[in-house]
Amino acid sequence: MALQDPDAFQADMVDLIAGGGTALSVAPGRALTGRQLLSAWRNDREALVAASRTIDASARIPWYGPAMGARSFITARLMETWAHGQDVVDALEATREPTARLRHVAHIGVRARAFSYLINGKTPPADPVRVALTAPDGSLWEWDTSAADSVQGSALDFCLVVTQRKHIDDTDLSVHGSLAVEWMKIAQAFAGEPGGGRVATGR
Question: What burial letters (b/e) apply to 102-129, b meaning 16+ CB within 10 Å?
Answer without folding.
Answer: bbbbbbbbbebbebbbebeeeeeeeebb
